[in-house]
Records
---
Amino acid sequence: MTKIWLDPPLMRSLIPWAILLVAVALKVWRFTRLVRQHLPPKPADLEYVRASLERSWQRDQQQA
């Protein structure tokens, strides 16, 4: 029972699937890397977002 993995017909059918799996994983990884590079950077902390909102609020108050 333990030698079932060594059976040549089984290995002949599993090796192409393993190669396909690795190829798809690499394509997905490359695609997501490209997408992540083109996304705008996210603010790292909440303080940056708060300060940005306050500046926007002050500009709106000055225009009104």
---
Amino acid sequence: MKILQRSKNKFKKEIKIAIYFVYKFNSNRDIHIVPNIEYELKIAKQISDIEKINFFREQGTLNNLINLFKTGELIYLGFYEDKCIHHSAIFINNTNRKIKKEYITIPPQCSWIHYCNTSEKYRGKSIYSSTIREIALEIMKKNNLKAIFIDTDNKNMPSQKGILKAGFDIIGKIYVFKFFKIKIIIRR
């Protein structure tokens, strides 16, 4: 009986389900977001720029952002009083084919804003929504993109509100089922 119970527990631990809402930027909206603090948004030019997130993020996040930077993704950093208080990663698909990134497929001439985070101390000040809107407008203009996508976990209500406030429209859901080493992705 104990062996069967352990097997059931292991089985439950190996099943993981994640649901993400997917949004598309609507650049036709005339939205002006004024954050409650003045901060500066910069694009990381070198790894030492990214290392400045250690003010509010752990080493694992820093390593992930450095790896994204090394693969050519843009890393935007928000600074307030010389402290990094926000980061966002941007993948731009400048090819003529779809590219799969993690659980999302990016169409040609489109972009994906992801891996965003604002320091807990600075949340609720419209930094997230103003940052992703500014990023979307800038990369759309510079890269002549057809669309910009962003996603968030279905349980992350503050991000969902910030994304909508920034001028994105919800366009679907992605369900990711993980069972041991098998991953099943369903898009709706």
